[in-house]
Predict the structure.
Amino acid sequence: MFADVARIFIKSGKGGNGHVSFRRELYVPAGGPDGGDGGRGGDVIFEVDEGLNTLENFRHRNRYVATPGEEGGGRRMHGKNGQDLIIRVPAGTLIKDDETGKIIADMSGGNRRLTLLHGGRGGLGNMHFATPSMQAPKFAQPGQESRELWVRLELRVIADVGLLGFPNVGKSTLLSMCSNARPEIANYHFTTLTPHLGVVSLSGDRSFVMADIPGLIEGASEGIGLGYQFLRHIERCKVLIHVVDAAGIEGRDPLTDIETIDRELEKYDPEIRKRPLLIAANKTDLLIDEQGTGSAVTRLKEKYEPQGIRVIPISAATNTGLPELLEEAWKMLQEAGSDATVYESEFDLSLVGNVEMLPIEYANPEKGLFTVEGPKIEKMLGYTNLEAEQGFRFFQEFMVKQGVIKTLKKMGMQEGDTIRIYGHEFEYLDTEEYDGGNATDYVDTEFWKRRAEKEEKNA
Ligand SMILES: Nc1nc2c(ncn2[C@@H]2O[C@H](COP(=O)(O)OP(=O)(O)OP(=O)(O)O)[C@@H](O)[C@H]2O)c(=O)[nH]1
Ligand SMILES: [Mg+2]
């Protein structure tokens, strides 16, 4: 089967835990804390690989997990970082969130490399947590959780010129005759199952990329045949060449072929029909009287040239008429302008599912001041009005429920110490008797600053 869609599970590495240990030296009964930091977890990175033109590799494997960071060690040893996982995809791959179908990234144009999931940060070892009042901290920071996501990959070939038409009309033969591509050619339907790209070189250093898109049939837009997946590729072509078998060797009429495929394009995406179009009437070597009144070439010209669509008779097999066709395609490309569609991201990666955000990502205890950081807290502060009593109580509850207070107490926080979070300061009140020692009191930093300034002035 043709593989231009895939669904895969990706997961970054968890951060290694910080380590708890104490120096052991001869003649020193109890040394200070020397637990090292955990290593960083591996990232999941997508990279464009020019050598690929299908998503076939993803059929055999659908789990992609980066390695976790290792735990820190004694003697301040830093844990080993996890290895990044690089996932190679063909240019033109759309990465979507599987659950919502939203576009995360379009690996085309300038987007060659993307870190989709960051690995977890390593936790700090207990060597960071010694304070005058807590000289032997038995606490180390856990590593940050990994992030995981199911994503859908969809390949949309990017080419300047796309060849479309019924199966067996000679699209692959045409591509092989005028470019470096070597697609398979055979006298049966659906020989080509994956789009092939070739570079067409014209005189004077001009070149463009041409795509041989697998054959379309009636009902393609409803998923009949293999068509639907292929219609996707046409979306990104700036100029289309509709190839028909002018000799009608399969008994179909080329005019009907064009109408049929036109209807499929219309159903799939009416925008595509507005693309510049050219008709290549192929297999003219089999026609006895190409210019005759009843010949397909003449009828095609009569019908399409008044609409401004050029019909160019060619024979891909005998290499006749190709220069004219390619020159015309080039001219239309120049008129069409240069930018290919690059899809915008619609997905906020910072909200990636299943991320167990640690309330505390970083905490630095020194002399009664605990500086705490963490995305979850930051977010919470963003929508809480601390000046309002209700807002403050809400925040206080959050700090307790998320275990922040408990963690800080483990780190040695005592009554009267200050917790500083993104510019806000809180005083910790050890109110054991009525709420288990979880209360905090909000301190307006600005207020204290102003007061300090005033005192200085007065002194
Ligand atoms: N006589 C003649 N035969 C041709 C010409 N172009 C292609 N053929 C033959 O037509 C058959 C189909 O050609 P392909 O290039 O594989 O056709 P296709 O459009 O790529 O077909 P699918 O991949 O199935 O969609 C092959 O046997 C070719 O040799 C031509 O100009 N003249
Ligand atoms: Mg083919």
Remarks:
- Residues 171-172, 183, 191-192, 212 surround magnesium ion (ligand 2) (CB under 6 Å).
